[in-house]
Amino acid sequence: MDKLHTVYYFLDLAGTFAFAVSGATAARQRGLDLFGICAIAFTVACGGGIIRDVCIGAIPPAGLTTWYYLATAIFAAGMTIGLYPVVQRLNRPVLLFDAAGLSLFAVTGAQKALSYGHNGQVAVLLGIITAVGGGVLRDILLNRIPVILEKEIYASAALAGALIVVAGNYQNVLPGDWIAIIGLIICFTLRILALRYHWNLPSFPKNKNGNV
After folding, report:
1. What is the pLDDT of residue 60?
2. Alpha helices, DSSP H only, in the chain?
3. Is the peptide bond before 85 cis (omega within 30 degrees of 0)?
4. pLDDT, tens digit, 9 for 90 and up, residues 158-202
5. What's the whole-number average pLDDT of the chain?
């Protein structure tokens, strides 16, 4: 395993852990049982990656065949349950860990698509899908409107991170590990700033009767 692959390997595991914590925290807040918390944690952590792998032809998906993805998700869920009072003291813990997972998976998703020979457009789209897929599944399972469908800057942040990776790979002006770090920092910073300062995309008010 060369240096670049090692970097993306650890970024992928970090993203799995961060998303699993966000999923487990959201499930714990909803009062789910132990199985439910672990199931949501795994779905959020691996759902986007599984969708990506199916799209690029990496069958069977790594999230279903590689033991350390499941182990990381279950460990994160157990840690969240055990340290839930500590996690709760963080400011908006679900959104914090979700932002970390979003940025990490936007980068690794785009890079994996490139490594399978897909063009830049496909790589950007799959970077976004990898980043937002797990969160969408989480929100659906918890009966919430997916964040990506609301006015928050979410997929746009993933788009920025994936674009950095693709552009950096094509321009080849920096080492691949630096490109990855820059991409995830930009994505994470954009998402956190959007949350902090309430940056939103344009939205349209409902009619007074609530109908479209």
Report:
1. 93
2. 3-29, 34-56, 62-65, 67-82, 84-89, 93-115, 120-141, 155-171, 176-197
3. no
4. 999 999 999 999 988 888 889 999 999 999 999 999 999 988 888
5. 90
Q: Has residue 166 been placed in a domain?
A: yes
If one counts the domains in the chain, the total is 1
* pTM (predicted TM-score): 0.89
Within a domain: 212: no
**What distance in Å separates the CA atoms of residue 164 and residue 159, rounded to the nearest whole number?**
9
**Segments forming the whole domain that contains residue 152:** 3-197
Q: How far apart are CA 69 and CA 65, in angstroms?
A: 9
Cα–Cα distance for residue pair 48/204, rounded to 1 Å:
28
Q: Report how far residue 143's alpha carbon sits from residue 124's, in angstroms, rounded to the nearest whole number.
A: 28
Tokens found for residue 31:
């009062």
